[in-house]
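Troubleshooting log. The previous run stalled partway through. Resubmitting the same two chains, unchanged.
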Amino acid sequence: MRKENNPPKLFLKFFRWYCNDHLSDAVLGDMIELYFRRKKKLGKRKADLLFVWNVLCFLQLFAIKRKPLPQNNIAMFENYLKIAWRTMARQKMYTGIKVGGFAIGLATCMLIFLFIRNEISYDKQYANQHIYRVYNDWRGPDGGAWTSFPANIHTILKNDYGEVEKSARLIPYKWFNAGSNLMRRDDRVDNTYEEGFAYADNDLLDILDVPLIYGNRSQALTKPMSIVLSKKMADKYFPNEDPVGKIIILNEEKTKPFVVGGVMRDFPANAHIHYEFFITLANVEFWPGEQTSWCCWNYNAYVKLRPDTDIPSFEKKLTSMRETYLVSYLEKAGDQSVTDIKKYHFFGLQPVEDIYLKSGKINDENQHGDMRYIWLFGGIAVFILILACINFINLSTAKSANRAKEVGLRKVVGSARSYLVNQFLTESLVYSFVSFALAVVLVILVMPFFNSLSGKQLSIPWITWWLLPSLCVGAIMAGVIAGIYPAFYLSAFKPVDVLKGSLSRGSKSSTMRGAMVIFQFTTSIILIIGTFIIYKQMNFILHAKIGFNKDQIIMIQGANTLERQHDAFKNELKQLAEVENTTSNNYLPVYGTNRDQNGLWKEGKQKIDKPVYGQFWYVDEDYIPTLGMKLVEGRNFDEKLKSDSASIIINQALARAMGYKKSVGERMGNGRTYHVIGVVEDFHFDTMKGEIRPLCMVMGKGGNIVSVKVKSKNMATALSSINKVWDKFMPHQPFRYTFLDESYARMYDDVDRMGRIFASFAGLAIIVACLGLFALSAFMVEQRSKEISIRLVMGASVRNVFRLLTQNFVKLVLISFLIAAPISWYMMDKWLEDYKYKITITWDVFMVSGVVSVMIALLTISYQSISAALANPATTLRSE
Amino acid sequence: MKGTYLGEFEELVLLTVGILFDDAYGLAIADEFEKQTDRNVMISSVHKALVRLEEKGYLKSHLGGATATRGGRDKRLYTLTQAGIKVLNQSKELRNSMYKQVPRIVWGS
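Second attempt completed without errors. Output:
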């Protein structure tokens, strides 16, 4: 029958698709007979139309295909599952690698997901919208942004700008009673050291929507000398009672008792601030005139704006604050920086929920997340998952030869391709679900380790409604994605080829497999190189010449309560055999100690020159020797010289900034004039991310921290004898100390953490890649066992066979290395840009990483290769 | 078992199958039906009726008799079952007896 004679093909097909088997052929026959009869009589067009009409008329219940009976389907799936189970059980190693590798990838993804979810959840809990933090925006050269303001900022914001509904201040720094204190109830004797103090206005509770458990939020901090405790602290000091109205003594200052004004709920872990105590700012004046002057910037400001405020235009409006207050203050003082300020100083508003993640250039005291790390970790997690999926695909296709006969036979007995696709997808889903279950177990096991690594408190959110459904959806999706290529690949075998045995045994996709191995190893090598470089930088930081000696120094904290006994305490410590020297002050070159930025001028130039900004530290005469700093010029302070109360020691950076050729003998100051008696070698008192900034030191007594340089190597006995001295002086205060080197290392916690996280990721990636490589090499050996045996019989040596089997893989790893090296060099160069003091990336890092990865790959392959080369050829060949 | 009630259309189809005897398949039945009754009929209605009659047990079918004009496809050939013959007889007797009971006067002169 010629083609053009036929009725419309589409509808023919359509009919066959919907019609049940009982009628299909007979009715179609009838319709075709009728069609030809009509064509003769009415012509093709009409016959076609009528045919279509007929087909549509049959679209009725009696003719439509019934759904296949459900029992049948279940039986089929039972069979699929049984076959899947048998395949899994038959090849334990492959199954282990497939499932294990996949589970590792999944577990990594889950952990990273939890981590990212936590990072982006910060400060989303407030009922108030439109709450912002005000910051200074310096749009000049070396622009920056910071959050501190003068004391009267909140009244100015409230009174001068109609957009502001509420404004409040916060002192987050270690400053007066903010930071840490010794604390006790007034009816107890012993003090306890507590951290997490901050000064705040009462309105801050309202703006940040802090829920109160006891007390009234509208007046918890309105009375002078009132204090609000967190729930945790209230439970500690006032268990089972309402603490409102109770008295608290800080630092033994009995003349200044604090009254508890309320108890607030503990800040959630994902808030940008976590304070245990808020001390009121009502009626606080730290020195005469402090509250109204624009001299000193120590307050952070939060505002709640009217909902209809347009932020950009309000920010512009805030500039008037600069003109009215700041410029007029500076002009009155004759400050020369006023022209720059007029040009560059602006104000900005940052939504509170952006503080944690998106602070970028804004410099503040809070702990921050980093958007870049979120992208990085997310990316790495996805990559590791891809590596695991690649193993899955690779192994499935590689083992295809073993399934080919099954596929062929199924097709011969009437299985359609779609059934086979279904079967392989089912199998892949089984793998996926097993892997997911395993992954969840892994996550539970690894969680504590991961928490210590990332410094977070994460847990699996079992109680949320979306957890199980999303796990199931994830398992299904992963199963389908990983299974779809093998499913179509395997089901496409032609039964004739397979059963004749002429199917090339999985070699068709060897390029594909090679590419996948390269991808896996490229990722792994990039991570290895990254880890190396981060560790080198960390090592550099910890062992660099930092300008002082951080070893063997104990910092005794909370020494301010010694008051007039400072010198006596110091002298008694110096008597101890274990102690070399001791110094007492607030300023140390590690985080968590005081900083004081001052404007500095040469003598008499205060109204003429722009100031040089530098740290202004009060230290005693033992400071420089105790910390092992080096004087490059001049001399140290001398207690016996009366004139040294007006002497100053500067660092090299300040000498440069001042333009001194010879510093000793110059006169300079911060308003009060000092006589320069010495220059100390630059030492790092900030992280190495920035350059060493100007710093100067003058004589001062007292201080929070007594630093003790220990002579003997036996730290334990030294500590116990120091403790005894302490107890003699301060019987009611616990002896609390830290080590300087540990505090120093803590400054680089984030680098250290990055290093460890990278190392774990690199380890994971390598494990997954090696699992895949191991299985692939096993497969290769299996495929070529006859060839190897024949070679051995013909006289090939073990070494020949080993080379034959490994060289291909080693080549792939080398190619990966060539791809990975430039990528990782570029990435790590970017990372190092953050640091002013850094290592240079040298070729040896790449060398070592390359050798390491090749070695790992070789080790992985060699087990299989060597066992193949050592096998008795007779056993393999006999079976033919 | 569905109801065994025989509709008018079904009865006529059943009779047509009887008339055609050994070549009763969908299209032939439709043709014969049109010829006998002068009514137009959709081929789908005929098949629908045939399926239903087979379900009721009045017809049985087998495949066979493919021709080139049908694109080489088999016909589904229907024959009456004993039950089919019986139900036709019953129907005819019912009509006869009811016909007889109509008073003469009704038929007119």
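Takeaways: Chain A touches chain B at residues 1, 22-23, 25-34, 36, 54, 57-58, 60, 62-63 (CB under 8 Å). Chain A has a mean pLDDT of 86.
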